Amino acid sequence: MGDPEPPTDTSQTPSRLPTPGAEDAHTAGDRVREVIARLGRPVSVAEVAVEALGIDGCPLSVAQRLARDIVAGDSRLAWDGDRITDAGGAGGGTALGATRFCIVDLETTGGAPGSSAITEIGAVRVEGLRITDRFSTLVDPECPIPPHITGITGIDDAMVRGQPVIDVALPAFIAFAGDDVLVAHNAPFDLRFLNYERLRLRDGYFTQPWLDTLVLARRLLNGALPRHDLSTLATWAGAPVRPAHRALADAEATASVLVALVGLMRAGAETTLDAAMAIGQPGARRGPQGPEESAAAA
Q1: Mean pLDDT of the chain
Q2: Is 245 exposed, middle or buried (0-12, 13-18, 19+ CB in 10 A)?
Q3: How far apart are CA 48 and CA 118, in angstroms?
Q4: Average of pLDDT values for 270-274?
């Protein structure tokens, strides 16, 4: 499920963007990366304590423990001997066929994190460009589901009664996703909800690379389709599962779309994750966009 996407910023193509909803979150990992960028080299655990955490005179054993926790909790950081380096989302040069993806879709009670809640999470893992695992759970939003939302998704209050609340369901999804590259159709919608809830649980936010199949389709199909909504793209990709405004079905359909779009990128020799991120995140436009530029919905 997704809301209409606002017009894309076409000023530049960033090599790495934070997952939507995490832009204002300033974690210890963010501060360590800033120090590494400022010094232009990997940093020692002592420098982490002083420069990133502001702890003068920190015992070495404490600094080492703090540094280990920061690196373990942020996939953008890695050890380079006894120093910490910025991995920038390791695996960016990996061939797409060897990349592990977690394709996710949400159903919600509305369009705004905080005032709306998640009612279903569906996800599939794609390895070697095929689905290898699935995750699905209804979520009790702890509030009534509006009738017009039930009309779209078929999910009503009775279905979610007794299901896990988001405080239980989200950690299960986090464990499933691991460090996989996150993928969604109209990704900002889903990722803002996921990061809002993860930050609310004081569990940081998603730091791995991410792709948006809506953006990828607009740029790679170059006007070949009149629309780029998930249903149209699933038909184009020959998806065996049709989108149904249910999270797992929509995640499976999105996976088929992703695999078909990867095929287009490979034909153009743009075969790495870095190349896909340069296309599949908001930034410089690749070819003309369809007439639904600001009104596509998943």
Answers
A1: 86
A2: buried
A3: 37
A4: 80
- Locate tokens 């193509």: which residue? 13
* Separation CA 215–CA 213 (nearest Å): 5
> Which residue bears the tokens 């009612």?
119
Beta bridge partners of residue 94, listed in sequence order: none
CA distance 83 to 64: 10
Q: Are residues 223 and 101 in the same domain?
A: yes
Q: Compute the C-alpha angle 235/237/243, nearest 5°.
A: 50
Q: Which of the listed ranges 10-24, 77-91, 93-107 does the model predict with the highest average pLDDT?
A: 93-107
From the list 257, 251, 288, the residue with the least C-alpha distance to 2 is: 251
Please name the residue that has the structure tokens 């996150």: 182
Domain assignment of residue 78, given as a range: 28-86
Cα–Cα distance for residue pair 228/232, rounded to 1 Å: 6
- Catalytic residue chosen out of the listed positions 26, 148, 228, 245: 245
Greater confidence, 115 or 284?
115
Active site residue 245: yes
Are both 114 and 186 inside the same structural domain?
yes
3-state secondary structure of 85: strand
Do residue 111 and residue 76 come from a single domain? no
Residues 180-236 pLDDT 10s? 999 999 999 999 999 999 999 988 888 888 999 999 999 999 889 999 999 999 999
DSSP annotation of 70: H
